[in-house]
Amino acid sequence: MDLSKLPRLSKTDAPPPSPDASDVAADPDGPAPPPAAATATFCNRCGAPLRPGARFCDSCGAGTGIGSDYAAAPVRAEPGVGAEVWVSVIIGIVLMLMGRSFGGYLAATLTRQTYHTNVTWTAGPKEGEEVGYWDLQGFTALSDSALFLFGFAMVMEAAVLALVNTRFRAKVALVMFALFITVLATLYNIVVAVKLLTVNTLPITSLLAVAFGGYIAVYEWRLLQQLRLARR
Predict the structure, then answer these.
(1) pTM score, two decimals?
(2) Structural domain boundaries of the chain?
(3) Can you say whether the dihedral through the CA atoms of 50, 52, 56, 59 is positive or negative?
């Protein structure tokens, strides 16, 4: 029996056939595909430009919102780190050698021994007695202690640069200690520079130590924040 010849019982039209994928692709006037999700191009914390698909800011280490595995945040190795390690080590050791008299005084003090300056008073009530380390003329103790302390800060910076991209587990503690030494050395050199300027002496080494110390302290502070973020 041919059912197509029977009269229609309803005026409801059949739904139009859905176009297949080839028709949609061939129709230039068809609906455009949904736009791709916009990605951030600048860091919300520091404003630095972001690499496409980066989950963390290369400048401050803040998350970009792409992915959620904060434990996998890498510590980015800067090119030339090896050279910077050697430069910091060499400069640090040279400065510590220049202020080695303070190193000897510090070692003698910590071991409760007497530090001998081998200099005696030639006049006054203390004539014939040995001159104390901090009483030496020319502000020797101040200059030597400033050099020695900043040299030690440079050596600690070299240790940070050498170990931050390794599997060394105490990275945060190391950076915190290095930052403490750097800030201490910088502040101490500020005090020494002011003291020497008041007696009309130009403290070139202390002024350079203040300039470089501030730069190193900022770097170590940012590195510490990045390491803390990577541990979350």
Answers:
(1) 0.64
(2) 81-121+131-231
(3) negative
